[in-house]
Amino acid sequence: MRVSPFSILLLPGDGIxxxxxxxxxxxxxxxxxxxxxxxxxxxxxxxxAALKQGKPPLPDATLDAARxxxxxxxxxxxxxxxxxxPPSERPEAALLKLRRELGLYANLRPARVWPGLETAGPLxxxxxxxxxLLLFRELxxxxxxxxxxxxxxxxxxxxxxxxxxxxxRIARRAFEAARLRxxxxxxxxxxxxxxxxxLWRQVVTAVAKEYPDITLDHMLVxxxxxxxxxxxxxxxxxxTENMFGDILSDEAGAVVxxxxxxxxxxxxxxxxxxxxxxxxxPDIAGKGIANPIGTIASAAMLLRYAxxxxxxxxxxxxxxxxxxxxxxxTADLAAGGPSVSTTExxxxxxxxx
Length: 353
What we know:
Layout: E1 6-13, H1 17-35, E2 39-43, H2 48-51, H3 60-68, E3 71-76, H4 92-102, E4 106-112, H5 125-128, E5 132-138, E6 150-151, E7 156-157, H6 164-179, E8 184-189, H7 195-208, E9 215-220, H8 221-230, E10 237-240, H9 242-255, E11 263-267, E12 272-276, H10 293-306, H11 310-325, H12 331-334, H13 342-352
Helix pairs in contact: 1-10, 1-13, 6-7, 8-9, 10-11, 11-13
């Protein structure tokens, strides 16, 4: 294991991003103080915050800092004042470019039921009980990046394309993760219709032979979507391509409760990018009511996957769990009942550490 100091780049971004990143920064500093790690935390500008300074959505200085960091923690990008701007001049362009430039091909989206929140989602508690899945979404291929693409007055086209190498590398990530969990991988495709999915299934099956201790099953994407809705606890690791993963991960997040709870990691061969799955939520920005747990849980993923500090990550998650068990709720979880501010939730999690 590498000895600290570790370099972490904080990208607060837009909307509630600065509030929730500040919360996660407090937790990271508490971890460093308690477990005697040196964390070098620097801050960069991105998204709408960069555009408002007359810079591109992803300034060169921010990209250079991201390349040099051991891990990157992002709050959110998105600002309605740029909604009519060309795609390359919108805050969201920063995130797409950052993923591409850093080669972040594996997106990890965990969805679990936190203690005390068994009734927070739309499913009956007995259906939701035991849900703890990890979705691996291929992030740099498929329809979102395939060429050619185009649009005319009367038609438009996109290309879904995957190579054997792209499928192998994301599959290996998923199988390695399954070894640390319940040793089951569900590969999701549309092999009854799409040639790309047939290649996906062939390659994943071949990679599975390298992992005889892991149980692999294949599932069509429509079947998977239904099963997440009525039996989410039946999944361990879900492996799928870019567009399917985009949709299924949001569905999985919705069934376990508020988006404010959900972290994510985007990994490649260098520094990883860690961010909550919620957006910038400009309607509540500055009000001190944003849920910081998604970002704090993303910081835990940064500790685990970027810095290889698994024990420290587990302690952060245990602190979040303890605070939720104690009944603390931010406004998004309170259902109109008593709630605490972003700052108070953060203080209680730090105290639990």
